[in-house]
Amino acid sequence: MDSIVKLKRFGLFLGDLAVLYAALFLMLFLRYGEFSSDVARFHFAPFSIIFAIWLVFFYIGDLYDLRLLKNNGEFFIRFIAIVALSGIVAVMFFYFIPDFIIAPKTNLFSFIAIFAVIGYAWRQLYNYMLNNKLSVVRILLTGYNRTTEEIYRQLERNPQLGYGVAFWMKEGLEDKNPQALAETIERQKIEVVVLPAHLKKNPRVAHVAYGTLALGVEVTDLATLYEKIFRKIPVAELEESWFLGNLVKNHRVYDALKRPVEILFVLGLAAATLPLTLLIALIIKLTSPGPAIFRQTRIGYRGRPFTIFKFRTMRLDAEKNGPQWAAQKDDRSTRFGHFLRRTHLDEFPQLLNVLNGTISLIGPRPERPEFVEKLAREILYYELRHLVRPGVTGWAQTHYRYGASVNDAYEKLQYELYYIRHRSFMLDLITLLKTVKFFFTNL
Fold first, then answer.
1. Are residues 310 and 398 in the same domain?
2. Among residues 130, 161, 188, which one ends one of the domains?
3. pLDDT of residue 314
4. 3-12, 62-71, 72-81, 426-435 — which is least confidently predicted?
5. Among 157, 277, 325, 361, which is least packed, fewest CB within 10 Å?
6. Closest Cα to residue 262, out of 331, 362, 387?
């Protein structure tokens, strides 16, 4: 099932690449009336670099998120905004790199206009094909609970994800016989049967489900489907035995290489942002009394406490009534501190934490001891988030709103467990790109 989603995204990527070069060739033909080898030689290399940058922008802008690919006004605005931003970057690229001898004024703006037209037409066509319910994998959903309800609603609203609930047996399979199930599968043209984890352990249900194998039907569990659709782990559907076989996987090569790669990256980032860091510290000192750097105890890898560094964003008396969660629009924040929190610039000093090894660039956000103790009592499996080093940013931060309650912590935990299970350099890169997107959209 996961291969279907990957194939759709890959097809979209190849289509975008083809349209970019088609727009380039069309622009050159309209501009010069021919397509000679000299014209191609002068334009191919610089525009290829531009295309690589544009494709990264497309990803950051969620143009490859299947959940958002619908032919509506929101998608039109998103597409045009990303093309416009990419065009600005292209203009800067040509004017700041004089080694390319082509003059981009006419050519570049002509290319942007041509691509905007044919690129949007291509996306409209692809979105239409994705949203065609005839192209979805037909699912038989069994049982009824909050998780199945979430899946049903999500798939009904988003056929472009590639799955559709063709039939829903809310009563489950306990009272079914193999023949009745086989008839339903054939009548509804079912391709995948989805079972809750507890039903798979039922001998009666297992016997009924086993009979579907002869029909060439895939049988999967509810947690697996939920994970593919929402990119988080459905904690309510799992038992301790699942974590033993799925969460603590061997990431030996990744864990060994991540640390030196992070150190090199952070040293370069710290050097590049040093002027900005000094400016922020100066503004904090000038606009509110107190230190520029704020220190606080957090819980990190394997439950060990450590000191985290951040730019101070709140008044000195912010916790005169004791520890409390910070809200997105916290009235304890200073005016400049509110800007720092909104843009996440207050996180810059945590590069020191990355260098001393207490946190990583990517991982679950570290919580305060007071909150960890409370959340561990109220949320099942909460302590598992400490299996990896906490991060400056993380998968949960790029997928869920600012957390300020037990319910928020529960939702974020499901994303954090997804990251722990699937952590890799590619997932880290995706998380970094999404973090960059949040920074620019919050300015």
1. yes
2. 130
3. 87
4. 3-12
5. 157
6. 362
Flag whether 242 is in a domain: no
**Residue 391 in 3-state DSSP?**
strand
Pick the last residue of a domain from 115, 130, 145.
130
Number of neighbouring beta carbons within 10 Å of residue 21: 13
- Contact indicator for 299, 384 with CB cutoff of 8 Å: no
Q: Is residue 110 part of a domain?
A: yes
CA dist 172 and 15 (Å) reads 42
Q: How many domains does the chain have?
A: 3
Asked if residue 96 and residue 216 are part of one domain, the reply reads no
**pLDDT category of residue 306 using cuts at 50, 70 and 90:** very high
Is the confidence at residue 135, as pLDDT, over 90? Answer: no
86 with 150, same domain? no
What pLDDT, in 10s, does the model give residues 366-396? 999 999 999 999 999 999 999 999 999 999 9
Q: Which structural domain range is residue 163 located in?
A: 135-230
Q: In one letter, which amino acid is 201?
A: K
Tokens of 296: 């606080």
DSSP state of 321: T
Query: Which of helix, strand or coil describes residue 333?
Result: strand
Mean pLDDT (whole number) for 9-15:
91
121 and 167 in one domain? no
Rounded CA-CA distance 303/20 in Å is 49
From residue 333, alpha-carbon distances to 225, 276, 363, 371 in Å are 41, 21, 25, 20
59 & 190 share domain:
no
pLDDT of 256 higher than 60 = yes
In a domain, 317, yes or no: yes
Which residues fall within 8 angstroms of residue 264, CB to CB, at 6 or more apart?
none
Residues 358, 286, single domain; the answer is yes
pLDDT of residue 73: 85
293: phi > 0 → left, psi -120 to 50 → alpha, else beta; which? beta
Residues 6+ apart with CB under 8 A from 202: 174
Q: pLDDT of 57-111, one tens digit each?
A: 898 888 988 878 888 888 898 899 899 988 888 888 877 766 655 555 677 888 9
